[in-house]
From TrEMBL:
It holds the Pfam family Cwf_Cwc_15. Coiled coil: none annotated. This is Protein CWC15 A. Residues 56-89, 163-188 have a biased composition (Basic and acidic residues). Keywords: mRNA processing, mRNA splicing. PANTHER family: CELL CYCLE CONTROL PROTEIN CWF15 (PTHR12718), SPLICEOSOME-ASSOCIATED PROTEIN CWC15 HOMOLOG (PTHR12718:SF2). Residues 18-188 are annotated as: Disordered. GO terms for molecular function: RNA binding. GO terms for biological process: mRNA cis splicing, via spliceosome. Residues 99-123 have a biased composition (Low complexity). The gene is cwc15-a. Belongs to the CWC15 family.
Length: 257
């Protein structure tokens, strides 16, 4: 009881305060070689600065809503087409003084020639459609020949249609017969599988077979039962195992044992 207060004071004096919460963190002093560390830093990065600080609006001439509402796009398109057409005609004229008059006269000549050619073609069209009766013989039975040829054509078409119908009917019958044979074959195979798969139904018809155990897949491997099945020393056979080969055994007996 006498030493406990002293030991307790000593223990409390040497106890660390690192685990206690820091409500007031440490600050640098203003002594020699020191400066006030509590002041905020005045350095900023260029990435921290704001990029856009004001809103940008469309100015006059930048296709605002009011401008687009008041514009006449149809009229502007017609003006551009007219200007392009005038530029083409001026470039084709060649810049000569009499270019416009010559072009107008040539246009008139082309128009006149076109009208004359159209009138001549219109006047020639009925003459081309008509058939001159002078080169036909009056005694030729033209109508009778036409009627006969039409009747022959109709008879030929009837024969062709009948032949086509017969071929279609034969093909349909052949397809139906093949389909029936296929179904019968599938049914026969299914019944055979059912009968052969049931040992009770196939017990009498089953061939007499001796009950032999099938050979395992690992009967002829190299590393099966290495200790039990040692090869005979008198026989020289190749073994795909370096530890069980004859050379390895002779080497171990000569140099190791």
């Amino acid at each position: 009881m006498g030493l406990w207060p002293y030991l307790g004071k000593k223990f409390r004096a040497t106890m660390t305060t690192a685990a206690r919460p820091t409500f007031e963190p440490a600050k640098g002093g203003m002594g020699r070689g020191e400066r006030d560390l509590s002041a905020l830093s005045k350095q900023y990065s260029a990435r921290d600065l704001a990029s856009h600080t004001r809103l940008k609006y469309r100015d006059h001439g930048q296709s605002t809503t009011e401008e687009l509402r008041n514009r006449d796009f149809r009229r502007e398109l017609e003006d551009r087409e007219r200007a392009a057409r005038d530029k083409r005609t001026s470039s084709s004229s060649g810049g000569s003084g009499s270019g416009s008059s010559s072009s107008s006269s040539s246009n008139n000549a082309i128009r006149d020639s076109g009208s004359s050619s159209s009138s001549s073609s219109s006047s020639k069209k009925p003459r081309l459609d008509q058939i001159a009766p002078s080169n036909l013989d009056a005694d030729d039975p033209q109508d009778d020949d036409d009627d006969a040829s039409d009747s022959d054509d109709s008879d030929d078409e009837a024969v062709l249609f009948a032949e086509l119908e017969r071929i279609r009917r034969e093909r349909a019958e052949e397809d139906a017969r093949k389909q029936q044979e296929r179904q019968e074959q599938e049914e026969r195979i299914r019944m055979e599988n059912i009968i052969s798969g049931n040992p009770l139904l196939n017990l009498a018809a089953a061939p007499k077979s001796d009950m032999k155990v099938k050979k395992r897949w690992d009967d002829d491997v190299v590393f099966k039962n290495c200790a039990a099945s040692e090869p005979d020393k008198s026989e020289k056979s190749f073994i795909n195992d370096s530890l069980r080969s004859e050379f390895h055994k002779r080497f171990m007996e000569k140099y190791v044992k």
